[in-house]
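Lab meeting notes turned into a lecture example. A postdoc, R.K., suggested we walk through two folding results consecutively so the class can see how the record format repeats. The first protein's sequence and structure tokens come next.
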Amino acid sequence: MSAAHSRKPAQLSLAINDLDFVYLPIRTSTDAARHCEVVCTVDCSWFYSQGANHMVFALDCTGGQGSYNPHCGPVLRHRQNLWAEARGFIIFADGAVMAERWNGTAMPGLVAVANTSGATLDPAQTPVFTVRIQAGYRAGPLADTLRIAIHQGISLQGPVLFQGEVTGSGWGWDWTGSHRVALAGIGPHFVTPNDTGCVEERVPRGAPDAVLPFIHFKLRIAKG
């Protein structure tokens, strides 16, 4: 797969401390009733089978690590620091999906998302899929809503394998007009800077061969 942005990697690799992430460039907008829409195609053929634990789609990323939020030192990939606060979804090897709200602490908000599509998401059987996330703010048709749909194959025209949402003020976000999105992958043996003198040990851990190629990773600010 080729990179959607020429200056970004074409895949995530967990070769360093079981963790990798990449940001899209920040987008700005002026209409507080709009929502974020993220689309990304991934190929997890060599991801979960090589020891990865889950992939992450994080929206509205703000802040950075270094002041016990929750890590006491930076976690750098591709010259950028891991976010402190965000909201989004995590996808596991068994097809389970959870919504997560990172809040700058070691206790983020987590909730299981029910699959209402009537189908089954099994990354081992359908490793290539396209994720579409819609995230509302405090106003507009998607106010305080996080919605996800996962389609088989490389486009949104593929069969729907997973569909679900979470709603409520805890899943909305205060409008700032600035939007930043990340794609991340993590393995079970990530070691935080808190455990290594506030400096991350950039060494292989349990899933050094896990990679997650991706294409079509994009963010748009949508109406309606």
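The second example is placed directly after the first for contrast:
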Amino acid sequence: MIKRKVFISHYKGDRIEVDNFIKRFGHLFIPKVLGANDNDEFINSKDTDYVMRRIRQNYLDDSTVTIVLLGSCTHSRRYVDWEIKSSLRYDAYTLPNGLIGIVLPSQNNRCHLPVRFDDNWDQQHRNCYARFCSYPSLDQQLVEWIEDAYTSRTSRKHLINNSRLMFGYNAKCSIHGDTH
């Protein structure tokens, strides 16, 4: 089995579940995570270009798949939007990251998708770049999703829609009604 480098995008409010996901499944891939553990760096800046550059350089440049772990307010977080945007970027010299959304267990298989993710997903998984999945119950399930996302970098990259303007601030959380 080839272990892919996987960037984990998440909302810091879901940190316990994110840590549990990495503990449970981290042996299947090489996790690249911003701010999940106490030792991780936090990029504390209001300069969007700087933050995007640091995320790309330190976390995305050598990863090939991005998993967005979806909690109650993940859809409203600007960093998640920026990470998805960076994951979908490509040019003549670089490929995009494959993109998977996985619902965290606390959400009972229901969540609001980040709008940029939703722009790249279709419920029937037809003519779309991203894949949206329930929390995996088996290691093999997750391995298959990661491999599908990895191959999508060439086979489905023409379906990427990354034209939406980036979030300037956190949006209102549809569940809790806040922007914190």
